[in-house]
């Protein structure tokens, strides 16, 4: 599991990043069930060009991505999986932001993002559960 010292180093690092609105440690390292071979999963949300509508599931690349990834691997001295929240699905984003917060530099943007991806993720889960239940009913009738 990632040490408290490394968590603090990551927090300090993200304080210096003016292009990152918020960042989270997630996955096995955040849950506390990582092994020595586990990588470190870190999710970041870059400040978008426009605040409205909230940017997610967009095909966008940010200039600082490679630099952040390299810096994180240097700080932690291990493999890092960098997830850009501006790009990934709402369900993945909703899961990642349930992790350990490393930085929330813009609470307004974070809360707007959290509200949207949580609602989208919940809607998707409801759809999956309903589809599963309908299939069960149909199979029992057959």
TrEMBL record:
Annotated ranges, domain Polymerase beta nucleotidyltransferase:
8-98
- Entry's Pfam families? Polbeta (PF18765)
What's an example of a GO molecular-function annotation for this chain?
Answer: transferase activity
Which keywords belong to this entry? Transferase
Gene3D superfamilies given for it? Answer: Beta Polymerase, domain 2
Name of the protein: Nucleotidyltransferase
Organism field: Candidatus Scalindua rubra
Q: What's the source species' lineage?
A: Bacteria, Pseudomonadati, Planctomycetota, Candidatus Brocadiia, Candidatus Brocadiales
């Amino acid at each position: 599991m990632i040490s408290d010292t490394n968590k603090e180093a990551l927090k300090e690092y993200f304080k210096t990043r003016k292009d990152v609105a918020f960042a989270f440690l997630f996955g096995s390292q955040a849950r506390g069930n990582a092994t020595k071979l586990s990588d470190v999963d870190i999710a970041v949300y870059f400040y978008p060009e426009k605040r409205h509508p909230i940017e997610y599931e967009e095909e966008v690349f940010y200039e600082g991505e490679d630099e952040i990834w390299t810096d994180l691997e240097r700080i932690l001295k291990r493999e890092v999986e960098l997830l850009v929240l501006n790009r990934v699905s709402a369900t993945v984003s909703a899961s990642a932001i349930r992790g350990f917060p490393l930085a929330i530099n813009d609470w307004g943007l974070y809360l707007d993002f959290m509200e949207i991806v949580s609602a989208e993720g919940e809607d998707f889960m409801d759809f999956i559960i309903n589809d599963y239940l309908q299939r069960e009913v149909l199979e029992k009738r057959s």
